[in-house]
Amino acid sequence: MIVRFFSIVLLLYLIGFIVFSVTLGSSAGGNRTDGIVVITGGSGRIEHGVDMLAKGYAKRMLISGTDPSVTKADLVHRLGGRKRLVGCCVDLGSESVDTRSNAEEAKRWLDKHHYSSFRLVTSDWHMRRARYEFRRVMRDKYRLVPDAVHTEPRFVTLFGEYNKLLLRRIAVVFEL
């Protein structure tokens, strides 16, 4: 009986991992929002957010989780230009250290600017957990448009992210 129970649990875990792996986040396309929130930590995220901002899909952008030593000049150098766009419309947030605190930092930024919608930019493999954390922090106060940056994640990355998502959901259920 115990072996059957654990076999079913293992089977459900594996099916969940497969579904997670083949249904990664995708690009949001041309949906307009008030703001853009980019979570640091993966290649192409900031560049994608800046491209969306330059195309007029939002008024302003927050880069959440920025190292406190990073300046707008550093960002302009990294992007190979776009000084005017970065100077007027990009905010660097350095208060967050993980996905949950990214959501808290973004909520304060959205409140400050009186925005009602935002485009969330992160890697495709990270989007599901990021959306979960942002919705938990923000409830239904803001319209969230997920905009995942396409990557080619390795098995280890997917496996780790799937387990983080499961553990976070379990922690929320048990209020840990």
TrEMBL record:
CDD domains: YdcF-like (cd06259). This is YdcF family protein. Residues 34-141 form the DUF218 domain. The lineage of its organism: Bacteria, Pseudomonadati, Pseudomonadota, Alphaproteobacteria, Sphingomonadales. It comes from the Bacteria.
